[in-house]
Amino acid sequence: MDQQLLLLIVHVVVTAITLALGLIVFFNNRKSATNIIFFILSTFILIWMVFNYFAIIHVGSSDLPWARGILFSAAFQVYLLYFFVKSFPRDRLEIKPWELTLVLTLFAGTALLATTPYVFSGMTGVAPGEIIANVEQGKLIPLYGLSMVGIIIASLIVMVQKYRHATALERKQWAFILTGFAIFFVSAVVFLFLVTNLLGTTIFVPYAPITIIPMLIGSVFAILKYRLLNVKVIAAELLTVAIWIGLLVEIVLSASLQEVVLKSLVFIVIVLFGLFLIRSVRREVYDKEQLQELTKQLNIANTELQDLNDNLQAKVDEQTKEIRAAYEVEKKARQKLEELDKAKDQFILTTQHNLRTPLTIIKGYVELVLSKKFGNFDAKVGDYINRVGQSTDRMSKLVNELLDVSQLKVGKSIFNFQPVNFRDLVVDVLNDLKSETSRKGLYIELKEDGSWPMVNVDPAKFKTALFNIFDNAMKYTEEGGITITLTYPRPKDVQLCVSDTGIGMSEETKEKLFSRLFERGVEAERISPIGRGIGLALSYNIIKAHQGNLWAESDGVNKGSRFYIELPIA
Prior knowledge:
Blueprint: H1 3-28, H2 33-57, H3 63-87, H4 97-114, E1 120-126, E2 133-137, H5 141-164, H6 168-198, H7 209-226, H8 231-252, H9 257-350, H10 352-370, H11 379-410, E3 418-421, H12 422-440, E4 443-447, E5 454-457, H13 459-475, E6 481-490, E7 493-500, H14 507-511, H15 522-527, H16 534-545, E8 549-553, E9 561-568
Parallel strand pairs: 4-6
Antiparallel strand pairs: 1-2, 3-5, 6-7, 7-9, 8-9
Keywords: Coiled coil, Membrane, Phosphoprotein, Transmembrane, Transmembrane helix
Protein name: histidine kinase
Transmembrane segments: 6-27, 36-60, 66-85, 97-120, 140-161, 173-195, 207-226, 233-254, 260-278
């Protein structure tokens, strides 16, 4: 066979294989950086083969641009190979900015150097036994070679590093690439670089495309295997490519134009059929994988459902047992708390006499001394004795309030209910406070609109509740006064509003106003340091015991307060 025809067939076959493999990988995942870089690499391999072929069939000085084109496109190949191994097997290129800048700079310098006379300065003609002209090397050909070999070695180092840190599955994929790369590297360095530059012959250059095939096939297998493509899909694609290559060879070997046209039409039909075949196989494999995945999930769901059915009763029994145990623990704890609460209440009730009796005795002795039955004493001593009496009265009142609150909490009946006119209760309390309001210069306004209802209350206890509320309003009002208004919010209920112009309350103070913790606001403690906050808590419990309600409102600090008392009408 004619040598030029053989070279043409080699280039056509390798071109078809390269193009087919590049397209297969690219359309497998068009968003993957690895696939995109491999497709670009395949494209420049095609360009390199074009330069290589035309460098062969042109003899003479016109060969020089094609020869330089070989080195120019080769620079793209080896640097794209570096980016390929950096991205594989991920879908994106992970490279540091400084590294990218360095590699691109070296690539640009190498590619541009290949187009200058400093690499190939001229052609010396065709040597005996060769079919392409020999080249005259420039002064910087070693620099070009150093850059090319250096980036190939760098690619090999990246491969080895990634292989060492790869998973078991990824190592199998890297094995394909390393094997193909090793064959390519050894054959390219020995036959295309060392032989050409050391022996001065280009006898192997025309067959350079053959060295690319192992690396391409290894890379394609690694990519497709990593993407978990079915073997059936790979086999269909490779078989189709093989058929295309065979038809291309047949076209090249055609003896007449008519035969070329006929075989070209057959080739086009076969290409379309092959694409349809590959697409059908892909769809079949995809549907099969989806069915297998659904079947797997269904089997898992059935297994879990069966386990649930088998163990459901056991789980129910176990949870029931745990609930019963928790209930018994809670029941015992509640009974213990109730016993402790009863013991506390009993203690409070039994200690009333012991709390009140000493104060009553002290108060009796103070009154006896003040009556001067045991002799006269000077005014200073009398003042001290009066202070003792006043302190005793305050203490007695505090103890009585505390005991009343405790009795209400215990639930002991301490009330003597009877129908009473609501106005009479209010007026009686206001009369008790009249002297104190006059002393402070405050006004008391009782707004009356119509008759007042009868309410069913314990007069003494309820007057205590009213007194605490009125006294509280007067105590914390320094200017202005108190306004009392009667309304009927509902047909069977009466509401009394005690509004003052005093210090007001914050939201935090309102929330704790009627608690048994007896807490007061900072401003209230400033105005009345001796107050304990017990009175409002007692009033609240007394009104609640009368089936009523007590609450407070305020627009804020220093904006006054409003206390609302609601009671059912008798």
